Model the fold of this input.
Amino acid sequence: MSKEQDINIVRFGPEGEDERRGELIDLMNNCPIPKEELLLNTGLFLTPQTLSRVLYMDHLYKKILNTQGIVMEFGCRWGQNLSLFSSMRGIYEPFNRLRKIVGFDTFSGFVDVSDEDGGEMKKGAYSVTQGYEVYLDKLLKLQEQESPLDHLTKYELVKGDVCETVPQYIKDHPETIVALAYFDLDLYTPTKAVIDAIRDRIPKGAVIAFDEINDPACPGETLALLESFGINNFRIERYQYNARTSYFVYE
Done:
């Protein structure tokens, strides 16, 4: 069984993409650059799609610099966005000890799907390799040490079903204000549950971002937004270099 089958991903790429990217991955895995210089040259392996994603996260983060609150990502999976947000905090506001970054995921794929989710998404999809959250925690801890105030832990990983873990997090952390909420849950039920759990913690100026609204493969995410916030109450924007993702500023 391939790793792709193990982690139950849904593919949308064109024919030939796997082979081409496989060659790039082979080059990355067999890179002759000395170990001590490898991190300084990771841009070698960025594709336009990956770089546009980095630029998008930067675009979102800069919008919250004057807004109080933490960053929450729902459906963090491998944790790339968490890592990017951590680096951006280190660049733009290295002494903001209150800008905590919190990632939520089951780390075992979708708990379930509902009728609102259409037919593409399946139970168990988008899982990760076993025990990955331990690896991710170590990585985020090391990365945090590259910025000031590294003696303070300013990130957290929360494992479990967000329908349960997000309300519990708010209960356990009554001080929580959400400056940036990033939704990558794909599905109706968890997206709606999270919006309902955090909506009273969202101040004006906060950024609410989604990975899959207006996406026919994931209709549930749009339906959850429609029912919880309403679509015509905000200017829903797209980032010009990353067509699939959307966001709005809460006003």
